[in-house]
Amino acid sequence: MAAANYRETCSTVRRSNYTSKQKAEIVLSVLTKQVTAEEACRRHGIPEPTLARWREMALEGVEKGLEGRDVGTRREAELEREIAALERKLGQVTMIADLRSRTLQRLA
Fold first, then answer.
1. pTM score of the predicted model
2. Mean predicted confidence (pLDDT) in 53-65
3. Does the domain at residues 19-81 carry the CATH identifier 3.40.50?
4. What are the DSSP calls for 67-100, one per residue?
5. CB 3.0 to 4.6 Å from 39: which of 35, 77, 95, 96, for a disulfide?
6. Rounded alpha-carbon distances, angstroms, from residue 58 to 4, 26, 53, 65, 81
């Protein structure tokens, strides 16, 4: 009897058939207050905990996306500073090499 109850419970649990884009649209409609969370859940036949999970995932994705741009921009600026320092050092080494070469030519 327990196995029958388990099968009935499992058969009523539905996996989401919504695409990422559809989930994003549903979450955005709630975040932009076009509809309430309850209304969105009712319209789309999804449980409120599912919508809450989608919302959290969406907000984490936004945060990571923005964080990634800041990190990339900071890293690019750091690399540009390093390139400028190396170019200055190369210029100094080139000048020293030229001076040594001229000195050697005068002595020869």
1. 0.51
2. 89
3. no
4. HHHHHHHHHHHHHHHHHHHHHHHHHHHHHHHHHH
5. 35
6. 37, 11, 9, 10, 35
